[in-house]
Amino acid sequence: MQELTNVYNQFLSNFPPSIHPLISFGLAILLIYGIIKVIQKDFVYIILLVVLLPASIPILKNIWQSLANIITFLLAKK
């Protein structure tokens, strides 16, 4: 997170300090616009994720447990 803040501060240093608030506001608007476009584009996938994720959690836990058992079995065989 600190690296992202440093890049943002370096970007702002290219402009006069008097317009830093305008640049920040413009970047915030662009970020919100981009998020809205992604949500509109992938809205069906987001709905499917919300609907199907609670049902898939036990399945994913079972898969991870099986993988862990296989790995421990393979590592125990020497």
Q: On the 0-100 scale, what is the average pLDDT?
A: 82
- Which structural class is indicated by helix and strand composition? mainly alpha
Shape verdict:
elongated
Helix and strand run: HHH
Strand content: under 5%
Low-confidence stretches: none
* Count of β-strands: 0
Radius of gyration: 23 Å
The major sheet is characterized as: none
Number of domains: 2
Oligomeric grouping of the chains: single chain
In helices, the fraction of residues equals: over 70%
Our measurement of the CA-to-CA distance between the termini, rounded to an integer number of angstroms, reads 43 Å
Please give a structural write-up.
There is one protein chain. The chain has helices spanning 2-12, 20-41, 43-76. The mean pLDDT is 82. The chain is built from three helices and no strands. By secondary structure, the chain is mostly helical. The chain is elongated, with a radius of gyration of 23 Å. It has two domains: 1-41; 42-78.
Offer a quick outline of the entry.
It is built from three helices and no strands. With 78 residues, it is mainly alpha-helical.
List keywords for this structure.
single chain; 78 residues; mainly alpha; 2 domains
List the helices and strands and how they pair.
Blueprint: H1 2-12, H2 20-41, H3 43-76
